[in-house]
Amino acid sequence: MKKSVLLKDLVEKLGFEIVYKSDDYDKIEIDINEVNRPGLQLSGFFDTFSYKRIQIIGLPEHEYYNKYLPFDERRNIFDKFFSYPIPALIYSYGINIPYEVYSLAKKHNRTILRVDYGTTKLISKLNVFLEFALSEEIRIHGGLLEVFGMGILIIGKSSIGKSETALELIARGHRLVADDAVDIRKIDNKLYGESPENIRHFLEIRGLGILDIQRLYGVGAVKKSTEIDFVIELENWIDNKEYDRLGLDDKYKSILGLELPYIVIPVKPGRNIALIVEVAARNMRQKMYGYNAAEELNKRIMEEIKNKSN
């Protein structure tokens, strides 16, 4: 199902001035994360008009409209412009709304908004808000931490030790993003995770209860959100299972249609999982920069075999 955001929520969040509010203002939904500057439409070309987007008029459009178009032509163009069901028209730079624009917006029941800053800043704020609000999202049971600058999603069955591993990593100086539940969004073909608001910065440790990580370890031990670079799954050690000992075969986990590097770490008494996660973060960063220790070792062995055979 396609996501949408209410225009009134966007206006409230970004602090836009309402110049004229349409009758259906509270019900207008926006489901496109792009905006339109109607320069072509002000010149009379409506064939490819992206009317479902928020419309923005800045100084260039306003100056062209006022200086080069006769009043009757201006009125006719805006009459046609507002006949399309645009979600809203926003003026930047605090421009005074021409009377004919205001009256035609009222005639066609269209919302007019205004900001006192520039068009570039306005478009940037809208793009960021809409990209986030309309992005695909999913909630996953697990924990999310930033380790050496890498976003690591830690998953696994309940009681496997995800929270205990997170606590040890926090004590080592890394940062908690989420525990128990992670809200993941897909933005620009990247995945970003954060904690649900009501449990943000809290960590549950069986035997201790709920811990407030920000109060215990300081603001440097927590982070609101982070990009997810790879996934680690913790599972109980199975004696007869063959675990990866070389790391030559890369595995991936699909989340919201994106493939993320995926590592399975078997858990059993005596294994320092937090240390293994730290090393995994360092090793993953090396791979991202083009160095793979397993491939290097394999290359050396194959060269040695080749030299001996000669």
From TrEMBL:
Binding-site positions, Mg(2+): S163, E204
Keywords, sorted A to Z: ATP-binding, Carbohydrate metabolism, Kinase, Magnesium, Metal-binding, Multifunctional enzyme, Nucleotide-binding, Serine/threonine-protein kinase, Transferase
Highest taxon, organism lineage: Bacteria
Annotated segments matching region Important for the catalytic mechanism of dephosphorylation: 266-271
InterPro entries (alphabetical): HPr(Ser)_kin/Pase, Hpr_kin/Pase_C, Hpr_kin/Pase_Hpr_N, P-loop_NTPase, Ser_kin/Pase_Hpr-like_N_sf
Active-site residues (renumbered): H141, K162, D180, R245
Keyword ATP-binding found: yes
EC number(s) given by UniProt: 2.7.11.-, 2.7.4.-
Domain (HPr(Ser) kinase/phosphorylase N-terminal) ranges: 6-130
GO biological process: regulation of carbohydrate metabolic process
Cofactor entry: Mg(2+)
Record flagged with keyword tRNA processing: no
Summary of the function given for this chain in its UniProt record: Catalyzes the ATP- as well as the pyrophosphate-dependent phosphorylation of a specific serine residue in HPr, a phosphocarrier protein of the phosphoenolpyruvate-dependent sugar phosphotransferase system (PTS). HprK/P also catalyzes the pyrophosphate-producing, inorganic phosphate-dependent dephosphorylation (phosphorolysis) of seryl-phosphorylated HPr (P-Ser-HPr).
Additional detail: Both phosphorylation and phosphorolysis are carried out by the same active site and suggest a common mechanism for both reactions.
Stated name of the protein: HPr kinase/phosphorylase
Name of the coding gene: hprK
